[in-house]
Structure formats: C-alpha cells, structure tokens
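Design a sequence for this backbone.
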C-alpha cells in the first residue's frame, strides 16, 4: 500500500472513531463499533491501531494539534509577551471548551478513570511547551523581559505550560472561573511584570 493510501485509511478510521466516541463515550465503544462506522474490517483497524485507546490517542492528537494551531495563529513577535500569553491561552481554552461539549460522554469517562485524562493531557504538552518557548524567545529579543539563559528559558516554558494546563483543566473539566478571560489577562500581566 502506498503511504497516501495508508494515511487516508488511517484518517477514515479516526473520523469514524470521532463519530462513535461522540455518540457513546469511550468506555462503551469497542473496536467493532469503530469498524462498523468506517465500514472497514476489524483486521484493517488492528493493522493501524492496537486497541481503542490508541484510536482515542490519535483522535485527541488531531484535535489538540488543531487547537494548538488556532491558538498559535494569534501570537506574533510584534505583540507584547503578556498579549501573546493572553491570546494564546484564551483561544486554547475556548476551543477546548467546545471539544468538551462535543465529547461530553468521553470526558465523563475520563473523569471516572483519571489515567485516561492524564494520558490525553500529555499529548499536547510537548508541542505547547515549544510555543511558550517561542513567546519567551520573542520577549527576550524585544527586551520585554530580563535575560535568561537556555536552561532558565526551558524551565520557564515548562513551568508556564504546566500552570496553564492546570488552569485549563479547572475551567474545562470542573467549571471553575466562568469569567476566565479577565483572570488570564491578570495572570499574563503579573507574569510579564515579574519577568522584567
């Protein structure tokens, strides 16, 4: 099989899983359900994915990558560090809220099994750290924040990503901070001032 055809079949399986997971959640779905939805044999599914958890991982990676791209599109070297932090996180949270509404049954299953939630939150971490590091780099180049060596810059990027990930989870999964936009603005300004 050619690579393009492999990619196409893989995408068909993920699209079918999207529909099935939205409809039934994660726990109640079987590989047979996904097979039926995409009209492919189970052997085809198992050629691409070992189990439904791998299918969920692929779907989450696709969703989170799209979310990250939308959020990243709002940042710019010409904007201030606090404005970048603010817009990036605001768009990310809004998009993730939409995802939670669409996949409310999957989210409920994840609440019952925290290991699922932890695994899915790790999917976006590394990519998000790279974006935060880019914002820090721009802030350094624009002399908006005090000089940092590479180790401190990496530490700051990982710490900020972790802090905002916890903030995201509190908002998205537990409904805290209904006026989160003003809280993000406030946090972004505090961070910026603290790094000057």
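Sequence:
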């Amino acid at each position: 099989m050619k690579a393009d055809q492999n990619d196409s079949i893989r995408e068909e399986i993920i699209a079918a899983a999207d529909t099935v997971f939205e409809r039934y959640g994660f726990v109640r779905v079987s590989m047979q359900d996904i097979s039926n939805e995409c009209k492919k044999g189970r052997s085809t599914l198992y050629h691409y994915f070992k189990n439904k958890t791998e299918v969920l991982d692929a779907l989450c990676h696709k969703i989170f990558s799209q979310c990250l791209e939308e959020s990243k599109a709002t940042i710019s070297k010409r904007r201030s560090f606090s404005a970048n932090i603010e817009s990036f996180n605001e768009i990310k949270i809004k998009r993730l809220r939409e995802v939670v509404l669409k996949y409310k049954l999957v989210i409920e299953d994840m609440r019952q099994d925290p290991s699922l939630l932890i695994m899915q939150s790790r999917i976006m971490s590394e990519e998000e750290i790279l974006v935060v590091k880019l914002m820090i780099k721009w802030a350094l180049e624009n002399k908006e924040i005090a000089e940092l060596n590479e180790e401190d810059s990496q530490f700051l990027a990982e710490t900020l990503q972790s802090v905002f990930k916890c903030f995201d989870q509190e908002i998205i999964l537990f409904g805290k901070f209904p006026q989160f936009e003003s809280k993000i603005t406030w946090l972004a300004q505090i961070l910026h001032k603290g790094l000057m």
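The chain has a mean pLDDT of 90.
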